[in-house]
Amino acid sequence: MPVRPYHHGDLRSALLASAERTLLEKGVAALSLRELARDIGVSHAAPGRHFKDKQALVDALALSGFERMAQVLNGADDAQAPLEDRLTSLAMAYVQFAVSNAELLEVMYSRKHDPDISEQLRAAVEGTTVPFVRIISDAQERAEIVAGDSWTVGLVVGAALHGTASFAAQGTLTPEAAVAGVPALIHHLLNGLKPR
């Protein structure tokens, strides 16, 4: 396809979609604004209208990923459900998103702790933790789980879920096994490992 001058209805979205396909097929190292422009048929200079460099593109991918994850998580939280069902539903949504988007998740978490990320990206990251903290806080108010800082307690849950997703990404668990193991994981987190 010959490259034509910049003319695209929604260039930013097209670039992000092409970048996510490249990420899935070839990894983050293969991302190139010039190659993405070629893939969608615009001039090599056109992506510069939206992304000053590759890092800006990676940040936009991370932002998109965190926003999509937050939507999935918020959609999975049923505040009326019993604690274990509620937390299991949210955890399943997280692990399913993670195993379905392993390459994107790697980009998301590689940017998460960078002190130079934008406030928009920082807010999107926080948006993915809010549903877990909300469940923890609600359960603490009802004395269903231990008292303490809800962010710290939520970190325990998040670490367990991210670990499960990482095992799936590395091939230690199949994606199906990772998702299937979530109910037992949540049960053990809520009830502990000591015999009763």
Descriptive notes:
The chain has 196 residues and is an all-alpha fold. 69% of the residues lie in helices and 0% in strands. It has 9 helices and no strands. Helix 6 packs across helix 7. The longest helix is centred in the N-terminal third of the chain and has 23 residues. The chain starts with 10 loop residues before the first helix and ends in a 5-residue tail after the last helix. The N terminus is likely disordered.
**Main structural class:** mainly alpha
**Which sheet architecture does the biggest sheet show?**
none
**Uncertain runs:** 1-7
Report the principal-axis shape: elongated
Strand share of the residues? under 5%
Can you count the helices? 9
Concise account of the structure shown:
This protein is an all-alpha fold. The protein contains 9 helices and no strands. It is 69% helix and 0% strand.
Search tags:
196 residues; mainly alpha; 9 helices; 0% strand; disordered N terminus
Record the SSE blueprint.
Elements lengths: L10 H16 L6 H8 L13 H23 L6 H18 L1 H11 L6 H23 L8 H21 L4 H6 L1 H10 L5
